[in-house]
Specification:
With 544 residues, this protein is of the alpha/beta class. The chain is 58% helix and 7% strand. It is built from 25 helices and seven strands. InterPro entries: GPI_mannosylTrfase.
Length: 544
């Protein structure tokens, strides 16, 4: 049985200044067995794990190079001694903290004799699904702590059905693990919870530890914790203890561990957060990969991520009156908007917060507001789900499920498929060497091939002189001239991989060098930021 109660002003005053807002809370009467089963911790965790495992198996497309090149490729090098390190690792702006779990996974697969193409491809995302499930679990707990179990159920529904969370959350991006740690940390922050507990100091230490870990993985996570930390500083009575006995020691401990880890892996003392700040913020190095207008997150990026949940999230923000969480969303979007280089994944950690508000709005559909703005108690708790709630659910499922499945199974899958095929061919020793005549980092690399064979891709390391085009850009400007010049000094590869858009001007060149088409893989129905790359084509040397 579920009721909606308005939190009293007394409770609000005892909660450390938490925003006064209506809540959905359980009544004192015994709950039904079905409801108890749903809220059971173990069953909830199993539900999240099962969903994310299926989610991981359904991810068969390419989204962002960092999923492979900044995580799995580095992990493969740690575990097996070979793998490509991009220029970021040579300049010391990446920490080994994030690739390490995947390196341990690879090592375990090798020990068990399971480092086959299938396991090398699927295992990393299955490991990530465990992290994601933990994120979903704490997301539910956070929603329950703020609004009650009924809202938490609808918040979790929003999280699991949102197309972008389905598409991105299980990928081996540092942003995915950052999002998990953000959700865990927010759950423990006293300034975020509805009311403090006796163990609030212990909870705050856990919150600080998780926040520090997220900063170790992605230094830009500090944007989130600067805001939350200031909220805690202004609401806490033991401010000196918070700063000097909790924040400083915990932050120093995590920073010291990552500092020593990077010293061990780099072979020299490297302070990654400072190098990251210098390149991405102070020198605007990220702008090399493209820039967007300041309002992009508000008008295109974050709105596309929320998609059809937008009206529900806005309604939930207004009706819940959780202005601190709303402020966190606006703060993170605003700070990231100041940077020229923008990507969807940069604001992934705050997407669950917006979806939590959507859950609040969906839950409210069952209990409409009375004219005075208060939530009315249900007179018939066993009444059927209102038609408007059914329509809302159908609308959200009809818009998000096709989108999520299309982006996960269809759009930009060719670059994954071609490497999966080459990995299987390499087991049979049919592959000797590979040349990728395509934009840099367009495919996975050694972490998928899992054979120490010569491979070459077109370089795109940022130049000190930005007016000088990099190798990848020169190829795209004139594929034939570049390939003709490149072939003068090449070691002829056994296989060449390229997009259909670049294949057209190179067909005669490939034929003249004794290459023939071996296989063609569908890639995309529409272009993203270049010419339509409808398929990925694999050419093989005929006289090898």
């Amino acid at each position: 049985m579920v009721q909606i109660r308005q939190r009293s002003s007394v409770a609000a005053s005892n909660s450390g200044g938490i925003d006064d807002s209506p809540e959905f809370l359980p009544s004192e009467k015994p709950k039904s067995k079905t409801y108890d089963d749903f809220c059971s911790t173990n069953k909830l965790l199993v539900l999240c794990l099962a969903f994310r495992f299926a989610n991981a198996l359904l991810l068969q497309t390419y989204f962002n190079p960092d999923e492979h090149w900044q995580a799995l490729e580095v992990a493969h090098r740690i575990a097996f001694g070979y793998g490509h390190l991009t220029w970021e690792w040579k300049r010391g702006i990446r920490s080994y903290f994030h690739p390490l779990p995947f390196a341990c996974l690879y090592k375990l697969l090798a020990i068990l004799g399971l480092d086959t193409p299938l396991f090398m491809i699927k295992a990393p995302r299955l490991l990530e699904s465990i992290f994601s499930a933990a994120g979903d679990f704490y997301f539910y707990k956070l929603s329950s702590a703020l609004f009650g179990d009924y809202v938490a159920k609808w918040a979790l529904f929003s999280q699991l059905t949102n197309w972008f969370m389905f598409f991105c959350f299980n990928r081996t991006l540092s942003n995915s693990l950052e999002t998990v740690l953000t959700l865990v940390s927010l759950y423990y922050w006293p300034c975020i919870r509805v009311a403090p507990t006796r163990s609030s100091k212990v909870s705050r230490k856990m919150a600080l530890f998780m926040a520090a870990l997220s900063c170790a993985i992605r230094p830009t996570s500090a944007i989130t914790w600067l805001y939350v930390g200031m909220l805690e500083l202004f609401s806490a009575r033991d401010r000196l203890r918070f700063i000097f006995l909790e924040a400083a020691p915990i932050g120093s401990l995590v920073l010291g561990i990552t500092f020593l880890l990077d010293r061990l892996m780099y072979g020299s003392w490297v302070f990654v957060p400072l190098n990251f700040l210098k390149f991405n913020v102070l020198s605007s190095g990220g702008d090399f990969y493209g820039t967007h207008k300041w309002h992009w997150y508000f008008t295109q990026g974050f709105t596309a991520m929320l998609f059809s949940f937008i009206p529900f999230s806005i309604s939930g923000i207004i009706s819940s009156k959780k202005w601190k969480l709303t402020g966190l969303v606006i703060w993170v979007l605003g700070v990231h908007s100041l940077l020229g280089h923008k990507e969807f994944r940069f604001v992934l950690p705050i997407l669950p917060i917006a979806l939590m508000f959507s859950g609040y709005s969906l839950a409210a559909l069952r209990y409409p507001a009375s004219p005075n703005g208060k939530r009315e108690k249900s007179r018939d708790v066993h009444s059927k789900c209102p038609m408007k709630m059914k329509l809302a659910v159908i609308f959200l499922l009809a818009t998000n499920i096709p989108m999520g499945l299309y982006m996960s199974l269809v759009h930009q899958r060719g670059t994954e498929d071609v490497m999966n095929h080459l990995a299987k061919e390499a087991v049979s020793e049919k592959v000797k060497s590979i040349l990728f005549l395509m934009p840099c980092h367009s495919t996975p690399y050694y972490s998928t091939l899992h054979r120490n064979l010569p491979m070459r891709f077109l370089d795109c390391t940022p130049s000190e002189e930005r007016e000088i085009p990099v190798e990848s850009d020169r190829f795209l400007t004139n594929p034939l001239d570049f390939a003709s010049e490149f072939a003068k000094n090449w070691t002829v590869p056994s296989h060449i991989v390229l997009f259909e858009s670049e294949e057209r001007p190179l067909k005669d060149f490939l034929k003249s060098h004794s290459f023939k088409e071996d296989k063609r893989f569908f890639h995309a129905h529409f272009k993203v930021d270049r010419d339509l790359q409808s398929s990925v084509v694999l050419y093989v040397l005929t006289n090898q």
